[in-house]
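Good morning N.,

You mentioned wanting to compare the apo and holo forms, so I went ahead and generated the holo version with heme C. This is what I fed in:
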Amino acid sequence: MHFALPMLIMGAALGVRGAACRSCHAAIVDSFAMTGMGRSISVPRVEAGDRLTHTVGGMTKAMAFAVGSGNAGKSYVWRLGDSLFQSPLAWYREKGRWDLAPGYERDTNPNFYRPIVEECLTCHTGGVRTIAGTQSRYPFAGAPPAIGCERCHGEGEAHAARPSRGNIVNPVRLAPKLRDSVCESCHLGGEARIPNPGRAFADFVPGMALEEVFSVYVSGDAAQRVTGHVEQMASARCASDPKLWCGSCHDPHRQPAATDRPRYYRERCVQCHAVMDHETKRGGDCAACHMPKAQAHDGGHTAFTDHRIRLKGESRPGPQLRAWRKGPFEERGLALAYLTVSEKRGSLADLQEAVRRLNPLLAGKPDRAMLTAAGMLALRQNKARQAVEWLRQVLSEEPESARNHANLAAAFLAAGDRERAATEAREAMRIEPLLEEPYGILAEAEPAKAAEWRALYRQRARR
Ligand code: HEC
Ligand code: HEC
Ligand code: HEC
Ligand code: HEC
Ligand code: HEC
Ligand code: HEC
Ligand code: HEC
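and this is what came out, ligand included:
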């Protein structure tokens, strides 16, 4: 929702739930269940104030589950067969009302057909994967599990059977980079997150460095992003103490009660800061003055806590993209990151930067994501034949992918080869019948049957 849908979509198992840990860690399991993370997914209920059906533009859909605890807000997901789509309506707690979901504000004709891609559920659930080769088909019925113990402690089966410190990850005992990676895997949104060749976001497990799976590209402008806590924290002067990390102030198993928050966080500050004269104001609530609430521009009218911890009025922006941490595929990642950003911002300068960086890399051994990027860029530059070549190569490496067939179909169509365009579009449709694009391509490739193709999509999508 607060992310543009990525053009390059990479990549089922449900992890161990708290139940497997409860016999020995009952207090932690129970208090974690009350946190936002422990309630990150729920099934809509009238008693919870949910609307079980959403109506927008004369269309009504029944909601399958909600994303978000409601601490800030909730987004809703509906299901058609095994495909998941987002509702354009969301609930905002602070405002106490329903409104368009983040990302739909400027949509003049909001509809129910934005696919729920894997990245979204990787951050918000216990971990689920799409059916291979599809963009939003999932192998589970009902709702996915909420974020669970294994997202920070890794696989726990062996430990539950024979408890020892040696067979479970404890983030605090990891080296700083690996420790921080655990929280960063979900709390560092950046401008673009680019998986390494052949990797999916969901491949990350605690104990790894983020860069073993993907790199995050930032611009230094994290002031008010929902997933900007990590970047903000790093720019705080407090971070000159190498001991500072998310866990210095947060116990992920427990959210302090609203009335207890000033005291709770003050205790965290005075671990490092001598008690000061000036703090007696505002009841000694350090965070109220030094970490004020601010509107997140991508969070849909919700206030988030400013983690830059600073004196008044400073800002430290930075224009260009850079990798959050050094990774093995930095140049490639940067090229793909500029492409993602150019789509998000609709910016020509970023697009040019992407092209400038990608071209020299294509002479080497480009992987699928790079070939796809090259193909889509060629298509935009009206070099359809060239696009066909790149995209054919992608498809030959990963034939069972709706996205790859659809991309190649678009390239054939642009190159004037309607017959091959239609063949590829049909393949895409076979793998993911609710992907809309192939129907449009078929309508253009077979003008005599255009109305039929459009009707078939509407029928299948119940539109
Ligand atoms: C049968 C009892 C039992 C079960 C079930 C169990 N644990 Fe433990 N756990 C322990 C014991 C005992 C320790 C302390 C081990 C030690 O200090 O040597 C421990 C320690 C831990 C630690 C701290 C490790 C460290 O390095 O400090 C974590 C984290 C942990 N457990 C997580 C889990 C998770 C997650 C689950 C569920 C998947 C789980 N435990 C299931 C008994 C259990
Ligand atoms: C699997 C992804 C994921 C990981 C890993 C993760 N978080 Fe979160 N975190 C979230 C999401 C999503 C929310 C918002 C949950 C909601 O309210 O729906 C959140 C919320 C929070 C909150 C607000 C209070 C609460 O409990 O909801 C804190 C504090 C927090 N995370 C700290 C951390 C820290 C510290 C770490 C690392 C030790 C961490 N998180 C790791 C996804 C994650
Ligand atoms: C990079 C990981 C990431 C991705 C991708 C992501 N989110 Fe989030 N989202 C978060 C984190 C972390 C928070 C909590 C931030 C906070 O509390 O400040 C959050 C907050 C939210 C909230 C508010 C929850 C609450 O009440 O605190 C909603 C609703 C939400 N996201 C929905 C979505 C949806 C829907 C998608 C995909 C279409 C999505 N997000 C994609 C990480 C992510
Ligand atoms: C968002 C990340 C996150 C999640 C989710 C999480 N933990 Fe933890 N856990 C941590 C961190 C960080 C520590 C280290 C806390 C410290 O010592 O500062 C920890 C420590 C522990 C410990 C050892 C220290 C102690 O407090 O006893 C146990 C046991 C544990 N967790 C169990 C669980 C269980 C069971 C679950 C699932 C209900 C769970 N954790 C979910 C991050 C998490
Ligand atoms: C792990 C230790 C640690 C913790 C915890 C911590 N700080 Fe800091 N903080 C520091 C260090 C180190 C500095 C830098 C001091 C310096 O440069 O003289 C600093 C600097 C600051 C500054 C000066 C900022 C500036 O721009 O000059 C403020 C304000 C501050 N901290 C407030 C807080 C508050 C409020 C909390 C609790 C919410 C907190 N700190 C928690 C270590 C910490
Ligand atoms: C110096 C203390 C401190 C550190 C370190 C810290 N936080 Fe926070 N965090 C706070 C305070 C204070 C709040 C506001 C809590 C409240 O109002 O309930 C907060 C709130 C949050 C929230 C809830 C949404 C919001 O913005 O209000 C999330 C999510 C969060 N922090 C994530 C993180 C992550 C991730 C890290 C590590 C990169 C981190 N925090 C490090 C003090 C800290
Ligand atoms: C009423 C608001 C308020 C509260 C409460 C407050 N501060 Fe401050 N703090 C300020 C302001 C304003 C300044 C800047 C003072 C200046 O410019 O001389 C400041 C300056 C600081 C500095 C940097 C200057 C220095 O003296 O080193 C630190 C560190 C700091 N505060 C930490 C804290 C901590 C820790 C707490 C809680 C124990 C706290 N503050 C509570 C408003 C507050």
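Residues 183, 187, 229-230, 233, 238, 244, 246, 248-250, 261, 265, 268, 287, 291, 304-305, 307 surround heme C (ligand 6) (CB under 6 Å).

Happy to go through it together on a call whenever suits you.

Best,
F.
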